[in-house]
Amino acid sequence: MHSEKPGQDRVRKPMRIAIFAETFLPKWDGIANTLCYLLEHLARRGHSSLMFAPEGAPEQYANTRIIGLPSISFPFYRDLKVVPPIVNVADDLEAFQPDVVHLVNLASMGLVGMHHAHNMGVPVVASYHSDMPQYARLYGMGLLEDPIWAYFRWLHNQAELNLCPSYYTKRELEDHDFERVAVWGRGVDTERYSPRHRATAWRERLTQGKPGRTLLIYAGRLATEKRIEWLRPLLDLLPDVALALLGEGPLREELEELFEGTCTVFTGYLEGQDLSAAYASGDLFVFPSASETFGNVVLEAMASGLPVVAAGAGGPVDQVRNGYNGYLSDPEDPEDFAKLVERALADRTQLATMGKRARAYAETQTWEMILDGLLEQYYEVIQAHPRDPQNDTALSRSRERQNSGTLAQFFRSR
């Protein structure tokens, strides 16, 4: 489990929180990472929680019981499991009696949680994590982009509160007519990710035995939406540079062919001390993805003392300040991205200064602060949604839309 310093709970009383997570362990990504920190925080703060997740998840994490639901593999991404929207969890939810339901990255399972929460008159918090409309475009399904936006807008606008990870994403959602949107940011464990984990052995490994080379680090899935091919020209532009790709994904074989003959290391999936040391042993973090609603790996790299060059779109826009702790490129211009990497490496003193500033920024983004803020948002939603029939404004609204969280209703509304 993750480590975190103890703190004071600003929430007034214990809550009962039911979470519907479209993805969780054993699949490891930014959403699973966030959920692990959340479940640990709920346990420390004395709140009760129940989570529904695709089958294969552990039966318990921290103090949270996890109910695995039947799922199928997503056709275009076999590691992603999808729970059909026809499952019935009414008995488990009624037995738990939640004060609030949190739908995480809601899609198909989000329909289930929304429907049952409305039937019980329980308020819903929904959090938006993945830019699925842009994924559709990147994977050659651009005709689905507008329908996907319509579906997520319809579903999210049934929630009492919609959360997203960054102000950039908040503006994007509001531009697509999402309502009641607020920011729930992300934190970073600055003990786990720290410059002190820099390791000679890891630098030797990641530079193929040439530790004097400048080491560029990328971390994340090896997938189309990450645009890792943008990094290939850097190795011709900057011949004394080495590149380490930390992660695994469906594009690995294709990328290994693309980077063949260069000073590039594919580490595969890393975790724990290995991941911490790999980050900290680099010199600059390079992240060309423009589809991030937040970008946890950017903050992890900054905590590790690395300045960042990232595409100027999505969550990294909230974290990276041009010339201060890194650079943001034109989000659609790989040549601009390459020029900014070259600029960052041109002055090693400035590079080191930006790395220190990146670390200082990361130290202000603690999980304790971020998650206590989420608990306050839960509490405010609960307080604004009384379940007492004598105080029936919110309750009557919920009853009016009891059946709104169904696919049939979505298609009738088109």
Commentary on this structure:
The protein has 414 residues and is of the alpha/beta class. It has two domains: 16-187 and 366-413, Glycogen Phosphorylase B (Rossmann fold), CATH 3.40.50.2000; 195-362, Rossmann fold (3-Layer(aba) Sandwich), CATH 3.40.50. It contains 17 helices and 16 strands. The strands form three sheets. Strands 3-4-2-1-7-8-9-10 form an eight-stranded mixed beta sheet. The protein has a six-stranded parallel beta sheet with strand order 13-12-11-14-15-16, with helices on both faces. The chain has a two-stranded antiparallel sheet with strand order 5-6. α4 runs antiparallel to α5 (145-156) and α11 crosses α14. The protein is globular. The N and C termini lie far apart (45 Å). 46% of the residues are buried.
Mean pLDDT reading: 89
Q: How would you write the strand order of the largest sheet?
A: 3-4-2-1-7-8-9-10
Overall geometry comes to: globular
The proportion of strand residues reads 15-25%
Integer tally of domains = 2
CATH topology of the largest domain: Rossmann fold
What level of helicity do the residues show?
Answer: 25-40%
**Largest β sheet strand count, sense and barrel closure:** 8 strands, mixed
Oligomer classification:
single chain
C-alpha termini separation: 45 Å
Number of helices: 17
Which CATH top level class of the largest domain fits? Alpha Beta
Low-confidence stretches: 3-11, 389-403
